[in-house]
Design brief:
mainly alpha; 4 helices; elongated
């Protein structure tokens, strides 16, 4: 019963305050389908240190060679550009915390 009540409450809230795309402001979803399709996922090869695109597999990128990062190897899922940049800024500076899901 609690799942049904939670879903009903969420649907009622969405009816009164419909979600708005964090990037283009289109009503209907926190991230609309058009903006979601603009996200490019990182593909191999990537730097073994920072996860940025690399020229060859299992190599360290030029940025990490010139100025190594003080973290253990990390991996980015997407480049910090375009829609992703806008969405992260919405979460960080405008309180769109529901986008974290």
């Amino acid at each position: 019963m609690t799942k049904v009540a939670g879903r009903l409450a969420r649907d009622l809230i969405n009816l009164i305050f419909p979600p708005v795309c964090a990037n283009c402001r289109k009503v209907g979803a926190l991230l609309c389908g058009t903006c979601r399709q603009q996200i490019t996922w990182m593909e191999e090869p990537v730097c073994t240190s920072c996860g940025r695109p690399a020229l060859e597999p299992a190599t360290i990128c030029l940025s990490c060679r010139e100025q190594p990062i003080p973290l253990q190897p990390i991996r980015a899922a997407v480049p910090f550009e375009g829609v992703v940049r806008a969405v992260i800024h919405q979460m960080k500076y405008n309180g769109y915390y529901a986008l974290a899901r």
